[in-house]
Write a structure and sequence with these properties.
By secondary structure, the protein is of the alpha/beta class. It contains 13 helices and 22 strands.
């Protein structure tokens, strides 16, 4: 029999990945979203699942709305991913953060108790509840010490989830997820802020460095696509419980920057600027999870390394700046003007037409060889200006992420040249 799942926060990073996972498993997915005047379904379209989800308007602060939806669908599973989740904003909007992150969860739990007590409930708890950490690494039994209104709100929701399990016998669970990122991450979060800024600098849209706060803050970063699998596994257990979901490795913001800019052999120090405005009023220095319980009881562990995650995010950003070319055969879609090899101007330029091998004009000998190496990302980085569909772009060298992953240019090893994907 087909299962029905309600997902709140369906338009967010985790909502999209979870919805896709459940659809692949044959679920009927009800996507609960907050109505607004702008289109918030971009991520669902990118996953290719928007037309497969039943969308319903859902407001965390309207108890009657929550009751009607739960009573109507009688879901087998309920995943609550909705909240004001940007930590920095919670210091500016503490009341709303508490209302949506804490009271909203209480409304859902009470509605489930009244109208659908057999529903299995998942609450998206957070490592921010540990805050000023009392032990390293953190596990399910580590004492909580939140350091932001967001963490405080999530802690109330977490304990409410435990209370409804113990007091009323509901199948209510929490996943204490440590930081998890993806190309679908909101651009206000530090990891996506870094990779987005990086890509814009790479193509010459901006010259200013990315401004960041505490570069020494360390986080346990994983891939959101891995973590939604843990959410699902939590609700498949015979008994409800709470689980730390993490990689078991911590890296600083500085290390994240180093790895991101290293994708193009760039020195991160030239492109990152410390700005005290981005320091939190109460800082969290390190969050590092111990996922031993999840590994033992759920059979879950993170599959994606930080290096793979960063390559994924950087590659996605660059693919957006260098989109796949949809041009008629024979139309010039890629040009280089005034390419410089070292200190010597070696050519007036070259062009690449769709479906053709790389063609040159006014470029011969060693200059041709050096240019191929530069475009393929071989050897040292070389300076130049690229024009893609009429837009001038600065570059140092083209990374593997573009060449291999996104159809902008691909290497034709047999002919040792370039063809347009």
């Amino acid at each position: 029999m087909q299962k029905t799942a309600i997902i709140t926060g369906i338009t967010g990073q985790d909502g999209g990945y979870l919805a896709k996972l459940l659809l692949d498993k044959g679920y009927r997915v009800i996507g609960a979203y907050r109505r607004g005047s702008t289109d918030t379904f971009v991520k669902l379209r990118e996953h290719g699942i928007l037309d497969k989800i039943e969308l319903v308007e859902f407001e965390l602060l309207e108890f009657t709305n929550i009751c009607r939806i739960i009573n109507k669908f009688q879901p087998d599973e309920f995943y609550n991913l909705a909240a004001q989740s940007f930590v920095a904003l919670s210091f500016e909007e503490p009341i709303y953060t508490a209302a949506s992150g804490a009271m909203g969860v209480l409304y859902i739990l009470e509605a489930l108790r009244q109208f659908s007590p057999k529903t299995k409930f998942y609450q998206a708890s957070t490592s921010e509840m540990f805050g000023l950490v009392q032990e390293v690494p953190q596990r399910e039994t580590t004492q909580f010490y939140p350091r932001s209104p967001y963490g405080v709100a999530k802690l109330m929701a977490h304990w409410a989830t435990v209370n409804y399990r113990e007091a009323f016998g509901l199948f209510t669970c929490s996943g204490i997820l440590f930081n998890h990122e993806s190309p679908m991450r909101g651009k206000e979060f530090v990891t996506r802020k870094i990779t987005t800024h990086f890509a814009r600098m790479f193509v010459g849209e901006i010259d200013a460095p990315v401004e960041l706060g505490n570069l020494n803050a360390s986080r346990d970063w994983g891939f959101a696509g891995d973590y939604v699998d843990a959410m699902w596994r939590i609700l498949q257990q015979d008994e409800p419980g709470d689980y730390v979901i993490a990689t078991g490795e911590a890296h600083s913001v500085r290390e994240f920057c180093q790895e991101a800019f290293a994708q193009l052999d760039l020195d991160w120090k030239e492109f990152v600027k410390y700005d005290p405005r981005y320091e939190r009023p109460a800082e969290v220095d390190i969050l590092l999870g111990n996922p031993a319980k999840a590994r033992a009881e759920l059979g879950w562990e993170a599959k994606t390394s930080l290096d793979e995650l960063i390559k994924m995010m950087v590659g996605r950003e660059l693919s957006e700046e260098f989109p796949k070319v949809d041009a008629p055969i024979g139309e010039t879609v890629f040009e280089v003007e005034d390419f410089r090899c070292g200190k010597m101007l070696t050519g007036a330029g070259f062009h690449l037409r769709r479906g053709e091998i790389l063609g040159f004009s006014g470029l011969i000998g060693s200059g041709r060889t050096e240019l191929i190496r530069a475009v393929l990302g071989v050897d040292k980085a070389l300076g130049g200006h690229v024009r893609l569909n009429g837009r001038a772009v600065k570059y140092k060298k083209f990374p593997e992420a573009i060449k291999d992953g996104f159809g902008f240019i691909t290497e034709d090893r047999k002919r040792q040249g370039l063809v347009l994907g």
